[in-house]
């Protein structure tokens, strides 16, 4: 980090400057979410969350937020650097400040997520010690109140957990799925998390468990055209073959419709088997995967 760059906790007065250097981070996606959430991030900082900025002469030129997802898991998000300061070693200072903050609070691992096409973000993450863990893709079944899965559906979180635990999805994702509190964050799934989800789904035929998922949140957002829509997100999906996936997609479609959602998406492992199953079952999916990386904080000393 250059000598004239410092890192401190973000303040409400930083909002305008942060919005200015983040609003066009991803022009291919229509902009960046940071200007919409920064003020809330600052207002909600506390024991389990810290929003950091890198500053030059008091002016914010970089951003990163760290969040505790459990007693030992931290999540890093929103890494941004003003265009004129990229390549000036701003991100290492922010990252190490976040690692130290998380480790001081008992976290032994810090994870992040990077779009697979974001070469700069991937290189930046590896440069500060994040190592690749897994990758996932979004399935996008359409909500349908008339969808009728051919398999029996259980809403018992214990059954859903038993279906996930030890599955191909569990192994490939290293036990991770969407967190219930922090959007766009992945945490270790356990029966407690499934029990606290908006809904759990487990599909079975007789004594054989075939597929599972869980709804993490249902929320409203505004489209680029200014139209309000409701979305349902599902934290992970596991299934044993493409036929089970087809039935799971129907169960998700019905569940999302019952929740009033206009759109739904489901996190699934990015493997040839899982993605080709989706194609075989004619379940729509996103164009690109996302990567998850992690930094070991054991013994972290700054």
Rounded mean pLDDT score: 93
Rg (C-alpha, Å): 20 Å
Strand order within the widest beta sheet: 1-2-3-4-5-14-6-13-12-11-10-7
CATH class of the largest domain: Alpha Beta
Task: Give the SSE order as H and E letters.
Answer: EHHEEEHEHEEHHEEHEEEHEHE
What labels would you give this structure?
alpha+beta; Aminopeptidase; two-stranded antiparallel ribbon
Summarize the SSE layout with pairings.
Layout (H helix, E strand, L loop, with lengths): L4 E5 L5 H8 L11 H11 L4 E8 L2 E10 L4 E9 L8 H15 L4 E7 L3 H9 L3 E9 L12 E3 L2 H8 L3 H5 L3 E3 L7 E3 L2 H6 L2 E7 L2 E15 L5 E12 L2 H17 L4 E7 L2 H9 L9 E7 L6
Parallel strand pairs: 4-5, 12-13
Antiparallel strand pairs: 1-2, 2-3, 3-4, 5-14, 6-13, 6-14, 7-10, 8-9, 10-11, 11-12
In words, what does this structure look like?
This protein is of the alpha+beta class and 302 residues long. The chain folds into two domains: 5-134 and 292-296, Aminopeptidase, CATH 3.40.630.30; 141-285, Aminopeptidase (3-Layer(aba) Sandwich), CATH 3.40.630. The protein is 29% helix and 35% strand. The chain has nine helices and 14 strands. The strands form two sheets. The protein has a twelve-stranded mixed beta sheet, with helices on both faces. The protein has a two-stranded antiparallel ribbon with strand order 8-9. A hairpin with a 5-residue loop joins β11 and β12. α1 packs antiparallel against α2 and α8 (242-258) crosses α9 (272-280). It is globular.
